[in-house]
């Protein structure tokens, strides 16, 4: 009797193993949407040579798994519709329920794409009214890998209703809602985005290898698993930092770093404000101490005192003469700390800042005028040289530590899933390397199109929104240069750009919450270019200029039914002009027919024009009558402050 039960027990587990071989990628789940009007890829894994049958709607297709157990077939073209079941039979059976056929879009980029409906304008009402069972959304989990992965770590499609929509991509949802309301067909959104990511993490190794700009960089990245790669990277960073500082990290004692009595004469120097990735520290995530010594007189000590440190990426604890005066755990918040009476001394005083950088940029950054010591009405600049010492290096790898990490884990596993096109919103994290974005962004588009073997894949992107980032026409502006690089990508066929400089409530917030209009403008691009309803879908774009004495006349494309400004006096803001001295001055500008006329009393012989050449471009008020804002531009190529900034990785070698 015991032998019989043992035999049944063994047979039960053998049957489980036999029926556990057939599997699908995790992007295939209940409630999913398949792309209409194309051959539909379905793929997965099974035992070598196993016969697989796929049933969908009225179709039945068969295929055999190859010697490695992989299989793939393509279903015939389907019209929009559903719901259907997708049934896959092998040694076991998989049933995917409630499947629709319609329009599928891949939504990717950084935080402004990831920003949810629940974080967007009018969220409460948007969520309450979100009864759209034919809109579906899947959020790809944040995952990184140094090698391409065969599958996602997880994935679950959700039907849009008031209990789920709050977590959907805001831009994605408002785009999808417009498509559904116009076409009355299902819409699927694959949301593979991650806040704070740079573009280089989303490009494949093969993409970099095909690029003259990046192939030398990628050659230095070994083809090994992430744990091994992270260990090598940390060891390389430790060797570099210890050589720079002249001391072993394990021997560092930080106990006296905030004190006036501590001797920092042997510490190396950084310029602040400026992210340290652009300086001798290089690409480093970890804890760094900064020290600045100033000399005060007795007359300075009876005044109300505070210290301002612009912004610090990511977190800080700030001391004055060993006394903690404040701390902040927000990378984009301006620091201003009150210094208690009696803390400052006659003679030498030390400001010490312990900075924790968890990933990406690090250190004090922003406007140099915001790095200062206030003593009553007296202001002492603290910008310039600061002594520094690295306390420790974070030993984990983050999404921006190395190239291709997000691509490998969040994009490659989706191939060859069929979709209509890509919605992309990214660039904020590349503003320090804006000039190189001219190469990186087209490379990403080319890379993804090659991976999906679709050279005409629609690729619609959002130009950087208004944000009060440092810089202007005379100082140079990385944010404006990034916008320019995005505009240049429009030379690539089947691309489109959504301008959003006007969609702002708070220019100090890098996450504008009006995702409704962004989604609507992206939808206008798709409606005009894909869904064949001819309409104006862009704002005015600079075409040419004519100089007449002290005046410049600008001609535009994409004017729709005419140029327009909401200013009641007809005065257009956002224009600057310069003469041969390359000094820009605000210009008076007016619409004249289908052109813009501008001049400045300070420029007798103008030669160049800027429009919206600043991070906070919310003053710009030139539109076409259809309501689309004009694209920021410049006519010169004079000052490009990011031209020499390049994406690099730590030189890695075995230790």
Describe this structure in words.
The protein is globular. It is built from eleven helices and 34 strands. Helix 4 (170-183) packs across helix 11 (515-529) and helix 9 runs parallel beside helix 10. A hairpin with a 2-residue loop joins strand 19 (371-375) and strand 20 (378-381). Helix content is 19%, strand content 31%. The model is unreliable at 1-20 (pLDDT under 50).
Short account of what is shown:
With 655 residues, the protein is α+β, with helices and mostly antiparallel strands. 19% of the residues lie in helices and 31% in strands.
- Tell me the helix content: 10-25%
Structural class: alpha+beta
Largest sheet: 11 strands, mixed
Q: Which range does the strand content fall in? A: 25-35%
Helix count? Answer: 11
Spatial extent as radius of gyration: 28 Å
SS elements, strand count: 34
What does the average pLDDT come to? 93
Structure keywords:
655 residues; alpha+beta; eleven-stranded mixed beta sheet; six-stranded antiparallel beta sheet; 11 helices; disordered N terminus
Set down the secondary structure blueprint.
Layout: H1 2-18, E1 33-35, E2 40-45, E3 51-56, E4 59-64, E5 70-75, E6 81-89, E7 93-109, H2 111-114, H3 123-128, E8 132-139, E9 158-160, H4 170-183, E10 187-193, H5 205-209, H6 215-219, H7 226-245, E11 269-272, E12 286-296, E13 305-313, E14 315-320, E15 323-328, E16 334-339, E17 347-357, E18 363-365, E19 371-375, E20 378-381, E21 384-393, H8 405-411, E22 421-425, H9 434-451, E23 459-462, H10 478-488, E24 495-498, H11 515-529, E25 541-548, E26 551-557, E27 563-564, E28 575-578, E29 584-586, E30 588-592, E31 595-599, E32 608-611, E33 623-624, E34 633-634
Parallel strand pairs: 1-7, 7-10, 7-22, 8-10, 22-23, 23-24
Antiparallel strand pairs: 2-5, 3-4, 3-6, 6-7, 8-9, 11-21, 12-17, 12-21, 13-16, 13-18, 13-19, 14-15, 14-17, 19-20, 25-26, 26-31, 27-33, 28-29, 28-32, 30-31, 32-34
Helix pairs in contact: 4-11, 9-10
């Amino acid at each position: 009797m015991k032998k019989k039960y043992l035999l049944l027990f063994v047979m039960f587990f053998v049957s489980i193993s036999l029926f556990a071989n057939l599997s699908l990628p995790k992007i295939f789940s209940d409630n999913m949407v398949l792309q209409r009007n194309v051959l539909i890829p379905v793929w997965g894994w099974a035992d070598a040579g196993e016969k697989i049958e796929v049933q969908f709607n009225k179709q039945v297709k068969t295929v055999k798994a190859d010697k490695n157990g992989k299989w793939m077939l393509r279903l015939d073209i389907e019209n929009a519709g559903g719901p259907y079941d997708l049934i896959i039979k092998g040694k076991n059976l998989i049933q995917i329920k409630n499947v629709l056929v319609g329009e599928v879009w891949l939504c990717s980029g950084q935080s402004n794409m990831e920003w949810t409906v629940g974080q967007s304008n009018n969220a409460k009402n948007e969520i309450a009214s979100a009864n759209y069972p034919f809109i579906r959304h899947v959020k790809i989990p944040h995952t990184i890998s140094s090698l391409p992965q065969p599958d996602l770590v997880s994935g679950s499609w959700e039907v849009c209703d008031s209990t789920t929509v709050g977590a959907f991509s805001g831009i994605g949802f408002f785009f999808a809602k417009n498509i559904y309301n116009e076409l009355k067909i299902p819409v699927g959104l694959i949301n593979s985005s991650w806040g704070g990511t740079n573009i280089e993490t989303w490009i494949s190794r093969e993409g970099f290898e095909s690029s003259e700009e990046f192939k030398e960089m990628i050659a230095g990245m070994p083809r090994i698993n992430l744990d091994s790669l992270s260990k090598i990277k940390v060891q390389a960073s430790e060797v570099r930092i210890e050589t720079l500082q002249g001391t072993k990290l394990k021997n560092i004692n930080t106990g006296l770093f905030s004190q006036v009595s501590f001797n920092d004469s042997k510490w190396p120097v950084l310029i602040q404000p400026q992210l340290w990735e652009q300086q001798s520290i290089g690409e480093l995530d970890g804890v760094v101490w900064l020290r600045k010594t100033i000399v005060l007189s007795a007359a300075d000590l009876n005044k109300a005192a505070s210290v301002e440190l612009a912004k610090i990426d990511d977190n800080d604890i700030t001391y004055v003469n060993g006394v903690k005066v404040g701390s902040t755990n927000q990378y984009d918040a301006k620091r201003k700390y009150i210094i208690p009476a009696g803390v400052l001394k006659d003679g030498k005083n030390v400001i010490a800042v312990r900075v924790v950088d968890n990933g990406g940029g690090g250190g004090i950054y922003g406007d140099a005028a915001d790095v200062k010591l206030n003593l009553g009405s007296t202001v002492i600049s603290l910008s310039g040289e600061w002594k520094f010492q690295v306390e420790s290096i974070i030993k984990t790898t983050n999404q921006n530590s190395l190239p291709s990490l997000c691509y490998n884990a969040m994009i490659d596993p989706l191939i060859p899933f069929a979709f209509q096109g890509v919605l992309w919103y990214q660039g904020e994290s590349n503003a320090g390397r804006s000039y190189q974005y001219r190469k990186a962004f087209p490379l990403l588009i080319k890379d993804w199109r090659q991976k999906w073997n679709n050279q005409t894949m629609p690729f619609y992107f959002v130009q950087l929104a208004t944000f009060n980032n440092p810089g202007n026409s005379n100082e140079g502006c990385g944010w404006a240069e990034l916008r320019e690089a995005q505009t240049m990508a429009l030379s690539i066929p089947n691309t489109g750009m959504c301008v959003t400089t006007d969609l702002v409530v708070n220019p100090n917030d890098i996450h504008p919450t009006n995702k409704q209009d962004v989604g609507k403008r992206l939808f206008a691009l798709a409606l005009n270019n894909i869904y064949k309803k001819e309409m104006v879908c862009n704002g005015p774009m600079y075409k040419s200029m004519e100089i007449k004495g002290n005046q410049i006349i600008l001609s535009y494309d994409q004017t729709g039914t005419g140029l327009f400004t909401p200013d009641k006096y007809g005065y257009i803001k956002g224009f600057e002009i310069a003469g041969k001295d390359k000094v820009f001055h605000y210009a008076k500008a007016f619409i004249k027919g289908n052109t813009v006329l501008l001049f400045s009393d300070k420029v007798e012989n103008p030669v160049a024009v800027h429009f919206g050449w600043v991070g906070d471009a919310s003053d710009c008020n030139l539109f076409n009558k259809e309501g689309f804002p004009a694209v920021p531009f410049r006519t010169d190529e004079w000052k490009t402050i990011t031209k020499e900034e390049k994406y690099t990785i730590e030189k890695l070698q075995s230790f």
